[in-house]
Amino acid sequence: MSGFWAWVAGWGFVVGKLASCSAVALTFGYYLSPDCARYLAAGAVIAFVALNYFGIEKTAGATKIIVAVVLLADLRAAIGFSSFTVLLCTTRSQTSLHTP
Fold first, then answer.
1. Which residues, including other chains, have CB under 8 Å from residue 25's CB and lie 6 or more apart?
2. How many domains does the chain have?
């Protein structure tokens, strides 16, 4: 491959990565609040740029915190859903006893 085509391929890679990062950031923004999606996306990008600027040790520490928060939310959702199911089944059984 000549130098020109290598340059085009390199810039194509960079532009593709920028497009995919912006799509993920906008998806994050629209997930949290469709009215403020652009601001949230920009904030997410700035936060991750700042995090990467400080190095791999800080990034690894932040990743551990993010994973812990997600796991706790999953655990809370699993416990909440199971207790909701028990409550729903108990309520249905009690209402069916009172129905003629």
1. 41, 42, 44, 45
2. 2
